[in-house]
Amino acid sequence: MVRILFPPFSVLFFARFSACIVAVLVLIWALHFKTSFISHNPSQEGLIYSVLHPLLMVIGFILISGEAILVHRWLPGSRNLKKLVHLCLQGVALACGVFGIWTKFHGQDGIVANFYSLHSWMGLICVAMFGAQWLFGFMSFWHRGEVRTTRLKVLPWHVFLGLYTYGLAVVTAETGLLEKLTFLQTKGNVLKRCPESAIVNGLGLCLALLSSVVILAAVSPKHQISKSKIVFSDSNYSSR
Questions:
Q1: Which of 23, 54, 19, 20 is nearest to 36 (CA)?
Q2: Pfam families in the record, alphabetically (predicted)?
């Protein structure tokens, strides 16, 4: 008999629920408190790029890549269909991540001036690893001449690196939130106890919750119906 402690539908529900909260919080922060994203050289173009960065990296990169991980848990159909949808969603997430970094480095200060913090270093490494993972998946999906045993050996590493990169993306976002909030509070632009601080801190907590649920859904065993074999005997029914 197979027993599952966490039914797949409940894990998927909590994953989608936490993802919706993350999306709402980052939209409120980026659009309602957009004055916090104005640089020392304010311009309409610079403000748009600054606001697009958290939207693309959180909603476009983290949320979509998380949904791509969950594809194998909820999408019906053949395995090739699931792999194709997974590959397409990861491609959209990669495009959002690359464009999100480009918006950050598109300011008047240039690339070098923005490449100084742990957040920026981790972001570049994360997107580079994500791109390598996507390229491997693309080649593996369209070029199927590899020996099956070789593909089976590589698959666990692909899954591990995929989950590691996803977790690294969440940690990178957390460092970005901490860096931004600390900078605003140090400059006196944001108080330690105010709605914006609460939203940023809540966003960080929800991102941590989301990553834990997505990884749990990815590593938990697939739902199986428990079966028992009924054997007829002259005296009674026995289950074994």
A1: 54
A2: Cytochrom_B561
Buried b (16+ CB within 10 A) or exposed e, 92-107: ebbebbbbbbebbbbb
Give the pair of three-digit tokens for residue 211: 């990553």
Query: How is 201-229 classified by DSSP, letter by letter?
Result: HHHHHHHHHHHHHHHHHHHSPPP------
List % helix, strand, coil for the chain (3-state, nearest 5): 75, 0, 20
Query: Is the sign of the CA dihedral 25, 27, 31, 37 positive or negative?
Result: positive
The CATH T-level fold of domain 8-220 is: Four Helix Bundle (Hemerythrin (Met), subunit A) (1.20.120)
Residue 102 CA to residue 194 CA, distance in Å, equals 31
CA distance 69 to 89: 9
Q: What is the DSSP letter of 33?
A: T
86-110 pLDDT, tens digit per residue, is: 999 999 999 999 999 888 776 555 5
